[in-house]
Amino acid sequence: MSSYFTDLAQQYIDGEWRPGTGSWDIIDFNPYDNEKLASVTIATVDEVDAAYRAAERAQKQWAATNPYARRAVFEKALRLVEEREAEISDAIVAELGGTRLKAAFELHLAKEFLREAVHLALRPEGRIIPSPVDGKENRVYRVPVGVVGVISPFNFPFLLSLKSVAPALALGNGVVLKPHQNTPIVGGTLVAKLFEDAGLPGGLLNVVVTDIAEIGDAFIEHPVPKVISFTGSDAVGRHVATVCAAHFKRSVLELGGNSALVVLDDADVDYAVDAAVFSRYVHQGQVCMAANRVLVDRAVADEFTEKFVAKVAGLRTGDPSDPSTVIGPVINSSQADAIAGVVEQALAEGATALVRGTVRDNLVEPSVLTGLPADSALLRQEVFGPVAFLVTFDGEEEAVRLVNDTPYGLSGAVHTGDVERGVNFARRIDAGMFHVNDGTVHDEPIVPFGGEKHSGVGRLNGDSMLDAFTTQKWISVQHGRSGFPF
């Protein structure tokens, strides 16, 4: 077992590793075999305050540091991830039940985002804007917001912590990170260790492992952070946004989805099957972009369904450390119970199970359901597990209506033999991201990543990071003399 789970089971505040002072511990379990990995005494409101104050103190000098010097930290962090890839992969498998394939996928993207952070340090540019006033020069500076609070989820904890932490730091901010309780090491203290070893000055990045049962809204209400970057469910995101608005903070919200993968009548069916199976079942379906719904034109529905069902039935469920495993455990027993409940509800509503997986502890085998009533709430909600709903449609108009018939608008995909037909289809979908002849699960470092409707507010990646983690400041200079009316 990686030493990460013994060495990093602490808080990281003001450049120091220290135990929390809360009255209880978060127990970190391996979701596959329920082995206890670590025990972390939780941080209190006082420690959240100490973390934010440390970030606030350290940030001023960091913002004044030459950006070429700042970027060296991210170059070193990237090298460290490459050197420690095997250990980090083991930690992903152990702490969140990620398969070897999933761990490789997460680490590949994490390295890409660190590479982008290297460049991001040099990205802020100022502007000179003309003035209608004679003798006046208008300068617009792009400056750090100050301190950013980051709340990361359990499904891709290493990547999704880095995805906000690295850009926020690169752009001259201090950061306090609160990882999900189920992934305190991979999503939290491992990130702190990485940057500590990469030479990031102490105090700039702090990690508090805690729970709202202990701190309430203290993490988002605290007066120091100017931006809260949250990745998680829309229900919690709504609360985060409400609290942020009440305290005049900016929130960047990357929330849930109910993506559809659409197979039109001229699609390459075999290829669409491969894309759909990956899009639904990668990391046990615990992905915000996962294809909850697979919509198939009636003209190709029989062929697609037969091949899709056969492929899903062959997916191996089991030990995530085994390279041949495709479906590992879901994160905890409450998730497993919830997914089993979704299948039971669908069957009670009249759906037919073409594949019905069993549930053993946290191992949830894949299911494929069809014939769900068109008015079922299950077709409009996010299902965070390995359950696919197959829906047939007649023609593009009905497909567009079905894709948009959900409160979410994160991702999606369409398969067709005509690329421009696919692009025209994609433009009619109310989603932040849509893919033609591909899967629904994608992320790249310089594209605008985010959703519409209940799937979030704001964008991350590329130039969007400037909007998320910097602000603009207007400074005017009067080279002559202004005239005043009195």
What is the CA-atom radius of gyration, in angstroms?
A: 24 Å
Give the helix level as a range of percent: 25-40%
Task: Tally the structural domains.
Answer: 2
Strand content: 15-25%
Tell me the structural class. Answer: alpha/beta
Shape: globular
Q: Which whole number gives the mean pLDDT?
A: 97
Strand order of the largest sheet: 14-17-18-13-12-20-21
Write down the CATH class of the largest domain.
Alpha Beta
- Sheet with the most strands, sense and barrel status: 7 strands, mixed
Provide the CATH architecture of the largest domain: 3-Layer(aba) Sandwich
Query: What's the total number of strands?
Result: 24
Relevant CATH superfamily of the largest domain? Aldehyde Dehydrogenase, Chain A, domain 1
| Low-pLDDT segments | none
How many helices? The count is: 16
CATH fold category name of the largest domain: Aldehyde Dehydrogenase, Chain A, domain 1
Distance between termini?
A: 76 Å
Protein name: Aldehyde dehydrogenase family protein
GO molecular function: oxidoreductase activity, acting on the aldehyde or oxo group of donors, NAD or NADP as acceptor
Keywords: NAD, Oxidoreductase
InterPro entries: Ald_DH/histidinol_DH, Ald_DH_C, Ald_DH_CS_CYS, Ald_DH_CS_GLU, Ald_DH_N, Aldehyde_DH_dom
